[in-house]
Amino acid sequence: MKKQVSLYPEVKSQEVTPQRKRELLALCEQIKALGGGSAACSDALDALGFRRSTMDAEISPYFPDKGRMCGLAYNIRGANVTGLPPGTKEVRETVDVEYYDGIEPGHVLMYGTRMGDRGTIVGDCIANIASAKGAVGCVSDGPIRDLERLRPLDFLPFGPSVSPVSGEGRVLWIEYNCIVQVGGVWVEPFDIIFGDMDGVVVIPKHLAEEVLAKAEEMFAAEDAIIQDFLKNPNEKLLDLFERHNRRA
Hints:
Number of strands: 10
Shape: globular
Structural class: alpha/beta
CATH architecture of the domain at 52-205: 3-Layer(bba) Sandwich
Strand content: 15-25%
CATH superfamily of the domain at 52-205: Ribonuclease E inhibitor RraA/RraA-like
CATH class of the domain at 52-205: Alpha Beta
Radius of gyration: 20 Å
């Protein structure tokens, strides 16, 4: 991985040790099981001052009935092209093939390119390869295709749209294991990506434990509000919310 300074001033490097990677993967399992899902994580990130960590509303699951996705960001950055310039084909194939060779269990493939409706980012070939290598899903700003063949996979895609148009000759892959922007959110390698039927949140890797604890706390308070109100529907809502230190 290219050495890069973190997006966050308090963090000096993006690099993650093998031990920290194992810890983050374990946290993914806990986050995936959160009672409040991505909404609880979004609330926790807001409370901690990270109000741009939830992706744009257009980024949604293609198969919302298949449950939740949580894993570590594995990033690739590309650019739109209407036709590949002469001499770039070899470079493009090297970048994306190396990227796919590097997929590990627990990865979420993060595609940082604004494709619009020009061509798809992911189809059945890549999804099958990624799933076989242990990736849990992908998130893209651009459309995907082959939904019928993707549905049976243990691989959850998120994005804005679908299209049958190939991405071949319409995107130039530039680099991977880099910072990318997807769904309006900047993502570092190994940040935790959590998606469910509500959408996708990005949990900065250095805040994972703090976000999990805060999300659990806030969900417990919200659940207590519901249970208290069901027991006493005549209670004033202001009193109820103040007692649990929550706003409506």
